[in-house]
Every structure is written in C-alpha cells, then in structure tokens.
Amino acid sequence: MLSPLPTGVASADDCPDIEVVFARGTNDAPGLGNVGGAFVDSLRSKVGGRSVGAYAVNYPASFDFLAAADGANDMSSHIQFMVDNCPNTRLVLGGYSQGAAVVDVIAAVPMPALGFNNPLPPNAPDHVAAVAAFGNPSAKLGLPLTVSPVWGGRAIDLCNGGDPICQTDGESLASHRSYVGGPTSQAAGFAAGLV
C-alpha cells in the first residue's frame, strides 16, 4: 500500500509504524519500481505486526540524470512531512540506480546549482532508521552511503558483482537489473534490524 501524497496534517491513527520512502530507477514506471516493491514487501515480512507504509518518490526517472534533483526535492519534502506529522514513525530511505543517486543528494552535500533546494532539517536523521541503496552510481566513485559520517552506520549500499553502474570493472547490465530477490531481502533484513 502506497502512502498518499501529503495533503495536510496527519493524525496519529494515519501514521504507520515504519514508512519507506523509495526512489525508483531510470525508466521504471511511476511508483516504487520492481526493486522498491520487492524491498517493501520483504521488509513487511520481517517486522512482525508493525505497519509499513510506502511512499514512491515523484520524479521523472528519465535519462536526464540532472532530474534526480527533482527526486531529491520530493523525497526531502515527504521526509519533512513525516517528521512534522508522524514523529514516531521510523523512516527507511531507499533507491535503486538513479533513485540511489536521489538518496545520495539527500544524504550528502546539497547541490543547489543542480536544482536541489530542499535540504533536510538538522533533526531529520533522528527519524531515519535505515537507508538502502541498490546499484548506487556514487559507489563507483568510491563514495557509497556506508562511508557517510551521518548515515553510514544505518546504511546498506548493495552492488551486484559485475554491475557497471556501481563498480568500475563491471560489464554486466544484467547484474544491474538483478536486485530483486536476494539483495532486496538482505537490505530488508538490515533495515528490519534497525527499525
């Protein structure tokens, strides 16, 4: 079940125990995408009776990679909405491929020159339990989320062997398209241990 877009003030009854905020990969249909959907389903199976909401980041996910800033602005807006209206909800941030780059923009140095103009407030990390990235382009540059001083201890940054998007010696696009299953289950187990 996808969480609705923020339209006002939520009541405590509307707030899930856990909310996954996920950015799909390049050219995935609007929504969570295959990787995000599998990750959310797996997380739901690992958290007992706690409720898990999911928010699909609204951005083009096109081959215009600078539009990742649009995703970062939307992700940040939803995180801020949840922090303000559902302060007891544990947040899990995630992204696949270009969606992982969206998470990188949120988690790293804000880049206003590229259109990211909605940075997280200082208290946001207090509400984020876990961060999961799949096929993250910044890992190819040696900057996986796991090295972040703020997010590193609560981040899992998965890169399949041979994936050319997240490693310099990768040559298998099939590897980049193979995060549903083992990797999504591994990331869900990691996140479940932190929420």
Short description:
The chain has helices spanning 33-44, 68-85, 98-107, 137-140, 173-176, 182-192, and strands spanning 18-23, 52-56, 90-96, 128-134, 155-158.
Description:
With 195 residues, the chain is of the alpha/beta class. The protein has a single domain, classed as Rossmann fold (3-Layer(aba) Sandwich), CATH 3.40.50. 30% of the residues lie in helices and 15% in strands. It has a 5-stranded parallel sheet with strand order 2-1-3-4-5, with helices on both faces.
What topology emerges from the helices and strands here?
Blueprint (H helix, E strand, L loop, with lengths): L17 E6 L9 H12 L7 E5 L11 H18 L4 E7 L1 H10 L20 E7 L2 H4 L14 E4 L14 H4 L5 H11 L3
Parallel strand pairs: 1-2, 1-3, 3-4, 4-5
Give structural attributes.
195 residues, alpha/beta, Rossmann fold, five-stranded parallel β-sheet, 15% strand, globular
Question: Which percent range fits the helix content?
Answer: 25-40%
Second rung of CATH, namely the architecture = 3-Layer(aba) Sandwich
Q: Strand tally, please?
A: 5
Radius of gyration (CA) equals 15 Å
Average residue-wise pLDDT? 90
Q: Uncertain segments of ≥5 residues (pLDDT<50)?
A: none
Number of helical regions: 6
Fraction in beta strands: 5-15%
Describe the sheet with the most strands: 5 strands, parallel
Q: How many structural domains in the coordinates?
A: 1
**CATH secondary-structure class:** Alpha Beta
At the fourth CATH level, what is the homologous superfamily?
Alpha/Beta hydrolase fold, catalytic domain
What is the helix/strand order? Answer: EHEHEHEHEHH
